[in-house]
Amino acid sequence: MLPLSPFPWQERPAGSSELLWRCTANPLTGHRPIPGVLGIYNSAVVPWQGAYVGVFRGDRTDGMPTLFRGESPDGLRWTFSPEPLALAGADAAIGIHEYAYDPRVVPLEGENRYLICWCNGYHGPTIGLAETRDFRTFTPLENAFLPYNRNGVLFPRKIRGRYAMLSRPSDTGHTPFGDIFYSESPDLTYWGRHRHVMSKGPTWWQGLKIGPGPVPMETPEGWLMIYHGVCNTCNGFVYRMGVALLDLDEPWKVIARGAGAIFGPEAPYEITGMVPNVTFPCAVLRDPAGSDRIAVYYGAADTHIALAFGHLDELVAYAKATSV
Amino acid sequence: MLPLSPFPWQERPAGSSELLWRCTANPLTGHRPIPGVLGIYNSAVVPWQGAYVGVFRGDRTDGMPTLFRGESPDGLRWTFSPEPLALAGADAAIGIHEYAYDPRVVPLEGENRYLICWCNGYHGPTIGLAETRDFRTFTPLENAFLPYNRNGVLFPRKIRGRYAMLSRPSDTGHTPFGDIFYSESPDLTYWGRHRHVMSKGPTWWQGLKIGPGPVPMETPEGWLMIYHGVCNTCNGFVYRMGVALLDLDEPWKVIARGAGAIFGPEAPYEITGMVPNVTFPCAVLRDPAGSDRIAVYYGAADTHIALAFGHLDELVAYAKATSV
Amino acid sequence: MLPLSPFPWQERPAGSSELLWRCTANPLTGHRPIPGVLGIYNSAVVPWQGAYVGVFRGDRTDGMPTLFRGESPDGLRWTFSPEPLALAGADAAIGIHEYAYDPRVVPLEGENRYLICWCNGYHGPTIGLAETRDFRTFTPLENAFLPYNRNGVLFPRKIRGRYAMLSRPSDTGHTPFGDIFYSESPDLTYWGRHRHVMSKGPTWWQGLKIGPGPVPMETPEGWLMIYHGVCNTCNGFVYRMGVALLDLDEPWKVIARGAGAIFGPEAPYEITGMVPNVTFPCAVLRDPAGSDRIAVYYGAADTHIALAFGHLDELVAYAKATSV
Amino acid sequence: MLPLSPFPWQERPAGSSELLWRCTANPLTGHRPIPGVLGIYNSAVVPWQGAYVGVFRGDRTDGMPTLFRGESPDGLRWTFSPEPLALAGADAAIGIHEYAYDPRVVPLEGENRYLICWCNGYHGPTIGLAETRDFRTFTPLENAFLPYNRNGVLFPRKIRGRYAMLSRPSDTGHTPFGDIFYSESPDLTYWGRHRHVMSKGPTWWQGLKIGPGPVPMETPEGWLMIYHGVCNTCNGFVYRMGVALLDLDEPWKVIARGAGAIFGPEAPYEITGMVPNVTFPCAVLRDPAGSDRIAVYYGAADTHIALAFGHLDELVAYAKATSV
Amino acid sequence: MLPLSPFPWQERPAGSSELLWRCTANPLTGHRPIPGVLGIYNSAVVPWQGAYVGVFRGDRTDGMPTLFRGESPDGLRWTFSPEPLALAGADAAIGIHEYAYDPRVVPLEGENRYLICWCNGYHGPTIGLAETRDFRTFTPLENAFLPYNRNGVLFPRKIRGRYAMLSRPSDTGHTPFGDIFYSESPDLTYWGRHRHVMSKGPTWWQGLKIGPGPVPMETPEGWLMIYHGVCNTCNGFVYRMGVALLDLDEPWKVIARGAGAIFGPEAPYEITGMVPNVTFPCAVLRDPAGSDRIAVYYGAADTHIALAFGHLDELVAYAKATSV
Amino acid sequence: MLPLSPFPWQERPAGSSELLWRCTANPLTGHRPIPGVLGIYNSAVVPWQGAYVGVFRGDRTDGMPTLFRGESPDGLRWTFSPEPLALAGADAAIGIHEYAYDPRVVPLEGENRYLICWCNGYHGPTIGLAETRDFRTFTPLENAFLPYNRNGVLFPRKIRGRYAMLSRPSDTGHTPFGDIFYSESPDLTYWGRHRHVMSKGPTWWQGLKIGPGPVPMETPEGWLMIYHGVCNTCNGFVYRMGVALLDLDEPWKVIARGAGAIFGPEAPYEITGMVPNVTFPCAVLRDPAGSDRIAVYYGAADTHIALAFGHLDELVAYAKATSV
């Protein structure tokens, strides 16, 4: 892992007992971050060559969601490429030919490449895949699954010899249901051995649907997965975050699942915006110095990039202590 | 009625012609009022031993709504018990075994006890009942009705020799319809003689559904009922308050029903929060000094406790003058 | 119980292994059974003075469902009164002021009267009640519950000193959900001590909703309840019958519940008609001679009265043997 | 055209590349602009006798939308008549007998009268029409169309000898679809020769429905139409503005249609209010001095009047440059 | 009116008290009446040169509904043209360019031409119009209305100097609502002076939606209109027929409206077919001999042409006697 | 291919011009074909050892669909095993642990085994796979895809070195949408290279959804695929059959697609039953004698097995001649 020296970690505010706390620089971006773009928000950030690089969801002024490249010296101040990522495959079935959103980026352990997954428009939403070695050139691979699917998230290393992915099968629109599944692949082209991981519910905040969030974090006790959960209210939905601990070798086995939401929309930039009451996590950074500090990038109100801090150990402990 | 001496009444702001005006201390609570709770908002407050006590809806961080006890020296600054109210009956059919929300509290005239009604999860929402004499020990009674019902509100005294309750029959979820009905009981166990009181509509602000609010206030002209009404818009719902005057002896007979909403979401803490555009009244205090001053506790945006002031006489007059 | 000598029992057809078999005289009625009526179908039949009398659902040519009186020498050939049953109470809240459908009739053990329950239109569907001693004069009682409810069915005797009723709480329209609940009353006016009996599912044929059918039959092993269950298909619903055994003293406790449907639409007069694929049981006759023979009256396709035969012992055995 | 000397034009803010920019005085109105009215927002403003007059949508405290007259010395500070516009025809089929909303006003070229169109409640929403010569007396005409229709917008002159109107056929409620059509009339009573103009889509921001906005502006290259477009998100809708250029003689022929939204909810008074995330344009003023400056009146969050500035030439150029 | 000598009138069956009775030759057509066509059913029949001619809805094997010409010596045995009616206008906005269904034909009194109305696909359903003088050549006129509309039915003569049409405004799909409106036109091109005639309800059989049926029949007491009404059941819809009497000079005024359905699906060919439980009237013949005998052509189950007989006087009397 | 000598081919009836004609022995099965089963209908039949064997969908009396083995000397008279197929894998993620329906069977060319695909209940519907060599022992493989998917159909040989499957991604219930996709696998465990084949529409009979039917038939001109298409009507759905010709080497490329339905519900056993108006093809037999005769097994009304005959050459010709 590269040195993350400049990352501006923030401590938990005095008096707070929250598991995740907001960065004081939030929101990192606002409406119209670059010309021709309504907002850049759902973020896949990784450390890169002593600084930070990321792939981001941005909605163009015609409303179409697509992917933008961004770079930052410190993880807070971002410069975005003016043009969307070009990810055209030789065949209309791969790469970005229609819409693209909600990316995740993962450096593959032991391989000199980064994988990007995103929700890819191919006769409905499915999981697009691409690889890069330099964040300049991106090579699209085959879509992982048949439609309809969202929130594909690769594990950062092979598990039992195969690439592994979490995802949320869904339908053609803004699906009012959703469980998390696990799939594996020998070659990133063919996928199978699909396993159900966990369902929406059982607690209220995640009673409508759930989906995987950032790349899972390996810990001695299992993969710590931050995921999003959605509930219905008497006037709209609320998108919050939760945590679960998955078995290291058989990640479809849930070791512990925290009962409560660990984070949700409360700040003004989270409860208002293009889509109110959404906090949607897509990336997490771990402190390279070996502490258990983490930083979670999340989209706020489908408008802003925002950042929250926490301790990985506390999330593991919370999942175990409150497991449902 | 106990002395309410410390209650911080506020006069109508200069230049205002509103029937209800916001307390300048609003919102009384915010996100995360106590550890493990997302928000405490819908409120059932009564004067108690020279101060104030209440039963409140609070949503735990797992999203589950349940009831919390709170106390306050002045009705504005509240301290909440860290643990939800324990209301377990000997039988799973009574007390709180699942969710609980939107409580009302009423001191029963001529009886040395207080009754609590709430929306109780028993194979769907129905009306839970419990009694207390000291706000320390609460004894659950039988649920009043078959599911599906919300917003049970007891009258503060027997009417024609029987306990009397308003409620809103509904269905399993966030019901898009709702009328107010009246029921009575000889013993708080068996309920019958159900009468329809009034329907959603006829004016637009209450065109989707209505339900009873705080305990009705007895006046020489009838029971003054503050209720909530909901309308649909081109992007979500709006929950506002209205007033109606019910016959003293036959409360299912509507003497007058104000045409307009007397209060609705306008303040920032009402139009944003966990559920935008909700002002939901659950309790009212009357000035013990004999004036017609009232104070209405309402949940704001399913996030905050808020307070508004008014004059009972004006509400009665408004209901009569604009009756539809 | 009165002598049922003329009743034309039929044996199980050779080669059949069905629990219920169709009467060869089916359908007993057809379209336009009497002037001004589209069909008479859901039936509440009891033996009466050596013959049979019943209260029936009939849909007038204006589509309104209401109740008709019928009489028959043998239970097969029915003569209907040309006018609907008059059940007007002094108050619009009781008796039939709007629509009325799906009646059940029960002779109250030890009382010289018959009770009629039906789905009564009072600001939505609820359970109407009336009594008669001669099937000439009917006296309406208070509606048992708040709306919205359908399929109220009284037990034939008091249980632990109180009248007892099964019902299916529902909503304003053709509810796509429904469980069976139990309620009791000291006086047939006030109802309480509501208990959940059983839910839709768990087997597919009853996966959408369920509701009580005829008056439960007392057996040494418990109350044998025939109920209706509904499933969704890829093109419409199917209404079938099932059986469950309820505890004699605490009938909300399910002793056994048969896994499969015991009867469903297969005959031409069941799979076509005003409402295709409906077999809806409302009444059952037991052989007065002491055998376990029973005859089930059911509405077929919301158009016809039809009859099926079976053995009570076999239903009890089936419920126990396949209990889910 | 009358002198518009006092109009407070504002230049594009430094650094902005937006096609429309907000007036620094926004919002021009707020909650409760006059007694008995929740908000006045969707606006039809015209220059009049050296100042400005307008017809506005205002929602009464009973929630009913109706029309109010307003006048202003400068287009920013508005005084509203306390009473709704009286537009009662001799026949219940014309004029305002129920609700009325979303007005547009157009001075008819070469005729000494102004026409008002609005969404008129006559057994469902349709397009009401009235004329005035002095903004004191308004004479209702026949409704233009059968229900269900919204957003009728007259062209400012006859086209090929006939009056011409754009509208959006819809249904009884908050229609989730909508295209723009063109109709013409020899006499403002009978309408025909209906032509489809353009459909919802093809870009995402207008993927749910579209409808005409202010009176189209004549330019040498065609009619410049500002319209509203709506998209669905994972938690509610967003109402934005777009531009299209229509053929001068055959306005149902679309010469160009801008790909992106030119304006949308971003300011606090646009993303919160009675209906969040709505910017709804109803009127436009052109600089009488002959420049291409325009000012767009729009309703913000169904609560406020707001104003944005732009240049007509730029809108034309944008429509052509990005045409889809 | 032409001689109808060969028409095979049938008397009311002995013992029947029905207002309309089925032709014993029913169904007149079945599945696959001509090659490439699934069924021909909704029928617009007129006497013509001593025999009968008609325009019919036929669904092609690709499912597309369109119009076919048919001729018959006696009104029972029909020969259909193998090709759909060609009704292409110079402009895509008129004539049949997409789908076409549910035609009506009316000889215009005092004009040597027949008018055809049908539901025409032009960016949604609207009312197409065409004229013919010889049933060989058909000239399309402008569509009468903006979408979305179905069931346009012309009156057989001008009323107060203008052409007059009934229709049912609807929406883009299988609309679950629908009222009948009246419109008039000086020239069959421009339409206006729209008036509401009657709403769905108030009786159950017509509780979901209603629409006009055959061309209204002039009688001394008013226009006798046969219309269709639809109700929802617990498993699908039922399409039946009703009658209303409209004012001769102001046909939007309802003089009387029969409470009940006068006809509905009961025969096997009505309760099963491509669309079960539909009887849909589109045409009526009056006895040229001056009796009040009528024959109603109706589509049965969207599969068959069927015919029923009745007496006009009885329908008038029924509407008056049972008026709601 | 095995000798099919006993198969009772039937010629096209005189006068018929249909592409498929019904077997005169239809329906081959009825209600309650074996004890404990409501109906056996959707059929996967293959020739086997001089006779016929098949895997069938049967709905148990508890409503659960599952798979039954059947055998027949002639393809018309079937004997079913009394017990459902046991297909339990070592892991709950494979084999039949919940419901199973709509099987297809294919002998793999050049491999001594048969593959069975079906809709498998694993946290939603997905495509189950199993193999057999003797139709006695069945070995479950991994499910092919993530949920939600229905109608998996394997090609009868590898294509370009990989197994190939058609399927219809869907959602959790009775999906109102559906397109056909193509996927491939090197090993029947991992699947990828997903390609869209064709969408619902463009003709009306297939306007709601489509899905693959029997195993595609190889012809010199391409794979002839019989598929099902569904349309919505004003009262329910209709399931019909269509044909398309797919490229031999790249089967996701559609060479031709017939415009019309080639078969649909018309016979009484197709338009009534447990699910009216369904004809659902699952298997096809080709004449082993080398003629182009084919026999299509289809489920009728989700109740019966039925059979239709045709000529493969004619289907190919029809697809090409009417291609849309």
Describe the structure.
6 copies of one chain form a homohexamer. By secondary structure, the first copy, chain A, is mainly beta. The first copy, chain A, is 4% helix and 46% strand. In chain A, the strands form 5 sheets. In chain A, strands 14, 15, 16, 17 and 18 form a 5-stranded antiparallel β-sheet that branches. In chain A, strand 2 and strand 3 (51-60) form a beta hairpin. The longest helix of chain A is centred in the C-terminal third of the chain and has 10 residues, at 312-321. Chain B binds chain C through residues 93, 122-124, 126, 142-149, 167, 169-172, 175, 177, 179, 181, 183-187, 189-196, 199, and chain C through 93, 122-124, 126, 142-149, 167, 169-172, 175, 177, 179, 181, 183-187, 189-196, 199. Strand 13 of chain A pairs antiparallel with strand 13 (190-198) of chain F, so a sheet runs across the interface.
**Percent in strands of chain A:** over 45%
Kindly report the oligomeric state of this protein.
Answer: homohexamer
Low-confidence segments of chain A, ≥5 residues, pLDDT <50? none
- SS-derived structural category of chain A: mainly beta
Q: Major beta sheet of chain A, specifics?
A: 5 strands, antiparallel
Mean pLDDT, all residues of chain A: 96
